[in-house]
Amino acid sequence: MIRRADVYLRNDKFFVSTAVETESGPIIGEGPISVVPASDLTGLEDAVRRALAASRSGVPEPDSWLGLNDSLCAAAGVKTWSAFAKGMWSIGVEQSDHMIVLVAWGKPDSKGNQKPLEAANRTLPADTPNLGAEIVATIEAIRSGASTKH
């Protein structure tokens, strides 16, 4: 099983959520949301590893697809996803038995939609030390437009 988490950098804070796969396949974020200062790389790693541990598949479809980002927006003190997305950078974290893939996403458009940046994805051993620093390096590469594929 692939375990997933989402990491968002916004206003010098990381917002980390568990990602779960629904019965029909779509992957959605799930609370609680961990909020970590951008300077706390150990805290970021801990939050990501907790979110990965909580990830699961076969989750029932939500009753409504509206409001799926409400807990994330509340953690950031904003009302809408498009407000959250302003100035935000994000990656997905996917873990299998032996590897972690940091999945890069591009800068959100005015509605908060993002496109994948596969050239900036990074593959690491599952037990990689300093995962927080690796996440920051990937986000910095996205911000600068550089590829960090390993």
State the CATH topology.
Answer: NMB0488-like fold
Order of helices and strands: EEEHEHHEEEH
Portion in strands = 25-35%
CATH class call: Alpha Beta
Number of helices: 4
Give the overall pLDDT as a whole number.
92
Structure description:
With 150 residues, this protein is α+β, with helices and mostly antiparallel strands. The protein has a single domain, classed as 3-Layer(aba) Sandwich (NMB0488-like fold). Helix content is 27%, strand content 33%. The chain contains four helices and seven strands; from the N terminus they run βββαβααβββα. The protein has helices at residues 41-54, 70-76, 81-85, 131-144, and strands at 3-10, 13-22, 27-37, 57-59, 89-95, 99-104, 122-125. Strands 1, 2, 3, 4, 5, 6 and 7 form a seven-stranded mixed β-sheet that branches. A hairpin with a 2-residue loop joins strand 1 and strand 2. Helix 1 packs across helix 4. The chain is globular, with a radius of gyration of 14 Å. Residues 146-150 have low confidence and may be disordered.
